[in-house]
């Protein structure tokens, strides 16, 4: 496991492993860029744009997807929690919190909006089971009361939409100043 500790490490990780696929029709980097572009187009804060860009960094750090042993419907790499733990000391809670909650947001939407499940990509439907499936009523209420609820749902929406093969929306370096600025402000 290669754990980034600086902004430069984060970008180097994407440079090294971002061209990998993760069960979708886009690479990790394509997905990250599309997600960040959607956040930016929505007028999101810099912290939420950075969260959108880096929300799946835990997949790259855990380095288990794509192995012969990994099954999307059985194995959960904990990328949401791992990503938040990586990002928090570098970029702070405003970036890490939506990352930590984006899987819970998927589970919440599948519970509260049953038609949402059918809109998920096949890989996202498969991982739902491994990630714990639907939430209980109590878990839904706790999540709805969480101060990060709205940002987590926004990130989840961008995450679901940012899987368009061949859609070019810039380069990772287009976000380097934004991410560096957030790190420097810590």
Give an overview in words:
There is one protein chain. This protein starts with 6 loop residues before the first helix and ends with a helix. Helix 2 packs antiparallel against helix 3, helix 2 packs across helix 10 and helix 5 runs antiparallel to helix 6. The chain has 186 residues and is mainly α. The longest helix is centred in the middle third of the chain and has 20 residues. It has a single domain, classed as Hypothetical protein af1432 (Orthogonal Bundle), CATH 1.10.3210. The protein has 11 helices and no strands.
Give a brief outline of the structure:
By secondary structure, the chain is mainly α. It has eleven helices and no strands.
